[in-house]
Amino acid sequence: MSDTTLEPEAARQGVPDGALALEASARTRHPAAGRIDAVVVGWCRWYTADLPDEVAAERRAELASDLFEERAHANASASASASILGRAIRGIPADLAWRGARLRRVALGAPPGTFPLAMPALAHLAALALVAWGVFVVWRVARSVLLGDWRGAADVAELTVVGLVLALLGSWLLVALRRRGFAGLVLAVAAYLLIRFGMYALVETSVTLTAFYSSSTAQMVLLNRVATGAAALFFLSIGAWWADPKTVPTASAEPTGASR
Q1: Domains in the chain: how many in total?
Q2: Mean pLDDT highest for which of 19-28, 142-151, 158-167?
Q3: Pairing with 3, which of 48, 120, 147, 149 sits 20 to 30 Å away (CA)?
């Protein structure tokens, strides 16, 4: 992508021309910087994905400039990649601390009722719990199949695996600020599959759980329905809440001191 195509995009997003031009220059002057640079830039894009465009662009431009200077100083030697990777790993705590500080600044200027810190944290925790549940159920099913103990229906196991894949996808989408509404929908479907069918799959992996289910069928079915409905409704609510434009922070929501 050329500098001329980047500048109109910067104007639309309110990103400083100098910051974006610096990022483009560093990227074009070192087009074959290697996989290490791609990993480092990808990490930066990940932890700035849900920050205001102006703040994220400036951080990425700083990183691009730093990578360029490192490569130029090392004259494209092989040791530069090791140095860049080492610095990136050691800098992870500082990156996360910087991210937290910027999020707090955004929260101070956010409209009332938008909860820019609490809601993402709650959504991430819920998504993490859903993924952990899915991994546990799929592991139990896979173990049962390998041991020859699986007696459940194949579609139950398959739908559980599909639910885990959707949960992983939804968790990844949560990172991108403007995809969180869609992430809520994906996670709602994942929750329905993982809880609705995951509980039945888990029952089929254990003789004890099968016996308990047989003796308390009505209670287990009720628990399954309530848990499934509550989880799906939670993620649907999260998606609908984020679909409201007022809940998406913009660069104007941040105090002016943050961009200095």
Answers
A1: 2
A2: 158-167
A3: 48
Strand segments, DSSP code E, in the chain are: none
pTM > 0.85? no
Structure tokens at 186: 């994906």
Range of the domain at 136: 118-247
**Residues 101 and 123 both lie in one domain:** no
Q: How far apart are CA 186 and CA 232, in angstroms?
A: 10
Q: Rounded to an integer, what is the distance from CA 137 to the centroid of its chain? A: 22
For residue 133, the model assigns a pLDDT of 93
Residue reference for tokens 């990993």: 39
Closest-CA residue to 61 (of 142, 3, 146): 3
Altogether, the residues listed in the chain come to a count of 260
202 falls within a domain: yes
Question: Is 43 in a helix, a strand, or coil?
Answer: helix
Helix, strand, coil percentages in the chain from 3-state DSSP, rounded to 5: 80, 0, 20
Q: d(Cα 87, Cα 91) in Å, to the nearest integer?
A: 6
